[in-house]
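Review form for a predicted model. The reviewer records the input and the model, then writes brief findings.
Reviewer: anonymous (R2)
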Amino acid sequence: MTDPSRAAPTPDLDQDKQTGTTPVVRPTLARGEWQVVRDLLPFLKPYSGRIALALALVVAGKLANLTVPLVLKRLVDGLGVQPTLLVLPVALLVAYGASRLSVTLFTELRQVVFARVMARVSRRVTLQVFRHLHALSLRFHLARRTGGVARDVERGGTAISDLLDWTLYTILPTILEVALVTAVLAWNYDWGFVGITLVTLVAYIAFTFSITEWRTRYYRASVEADTHANERAVDSLLNYETVKYFGNEEHEARRYDENLVKLENAQVMSRKTLAVLNLGQTSIVAIGVTAMMWRAAAGVVDGSMTVGDLVLVNAYLLQLSAPLNMLGMMYREVKQAFTNLERLFGLLDERQDVQDREDSMPLHAAQPRIEFDHVEFAYDARRRILQDVSFGIEPGGTLAVVGHSGSGKSTLARLLYRFYDVDGGRITIRDVDGMTRDIRDYTQASVRSAIAIVPQDTVLFNDTIYYNILYGRPSASREEVEQAARAAHIHDLIVSLPDGYESEVGERGLKLSGGEKQRVAIARALLKNPAILIFDEATSALDSKSERSIQAELDRIAVGRTTLIIAHRLSTVMDADEILVMDSGRIVERGHHAQLLAIGGHYAQMWQLQQQEQRKIAEAEAIDEDAVPVET
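Model under review:
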């Protein structure tokens, strides 16, 4: 688990979307490779036994691999004996085959033992990041780019397996093998072989590390370009209709290509520098191998070494050259894995603005009383959204909030859901025990489980209608889902579709009309059966006829629940127990419908304007109905 004390500062929204400017995210602080390792260790700890067993199998495999050249030497030297002793080479041939088989056996057993560790750790880290992203405040999600975050999570999950595989079971065993081969050469022959091996190894590693560090900048650049390109692609495809409305397909393609050009240039440089790396590595290994073989051949000529010794030295050189040639690639992969994990764990560093207090308790509410007590709030310190807002909603009562766009109405719902915490004042809820507590004294999960909302902009999952309604309460039965759909006046429409409740709604529900999506949202809220209901412009996407039919259902389901209605159409709030009129973040009027009309203030002006609009619409509809179609 990430230590909150090390958390990077939360992204700042320079302006909320209500101000009309683009949010700006403060970049996550870079983390070192050791810090990435420290963050990864807690996930590996439960599997220390498997890791130790896998490492033991790796060591056994390397020891078996070490015996292969030794047996080969004895075999070559033994081929010169008398035919009566031919049994010796046969035994050595069997030993040679067994040694090679053991190498493969131990290697594959290691894969079997460790496969679960790599997959499970990758899954646990990715799942924790996913949960953390959902736990972050709305402030972060208004600023983030969906495509970029998804790409970082995808690459980070893959990087975990790569890092574990390359470091524990490739780089470390290679170092062990080099040490063992050097020891055998030192024990059986003179130190000249050891010197050549060490000089070659040091030169190889120094060259590889320096060039790879140089190349890493190009990989980082390609990662950045890939992330930005993915952000642009996802953003453009999610807004497909808007692109089509304005005929901006080529504009989107050009913006996407700008990132692809950067990605292309970074990848080209990466491949060019890879060629330099491979050429240098091959040259160093070739020089080292040539020097070793020259020394071994000279030993055979002067009689100090046998042909078998020459074969042994050559076999060891072949064993070492393969992993050495891969060492640069291994190091590059490890560096790339660290880069990807740095971005993945960077998401865990994002601080949760809204957190449960240590002594927070669950909310158990039937008909709670809600009170906003001198609430102050701003998305950005330079622009106040709510100023000294105070009101109460009685148990089982209905309070409506009206006002012009940008007056702060929807912010009330966000604060009640604890997407944000208030800057001043407090919000209180009375529990079933009769105690009134600050909303921050309750757990976020319990507060949100007690509330259901029908939002103005209904976004559905790219799944079936049944799934989207069931989302209100995943444990509900099919009968309960259908009852909720009937109450929302959408059941008949659903069953008339070819696939019924199994009909796919498409990305963000685009296969449904605005009114149909709104009805699904109402059904979903009904299925949740909450103690607190919020209607945020719940009928805004419906025509007048549909609005009248659904409004009666909304009034019915609100009975016995504490209800907050945020509305633009005043006709939907006439029967509310109290109506608040907001302007520039303040409550400027409050009272019943009749009282507010009698005052002749903001509410009365809004009512008159909307009544005029309704009359014009009614007249237009009457003209359409009276029109007689001309037969052709």
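Findings: The first strand starts at residue 370 and ends at 377.
Further findings: The domain at 33-348 is CATH 1.20.1560.10 (ABC transporter transmembrane region fold).
Recommendation: see findings above.
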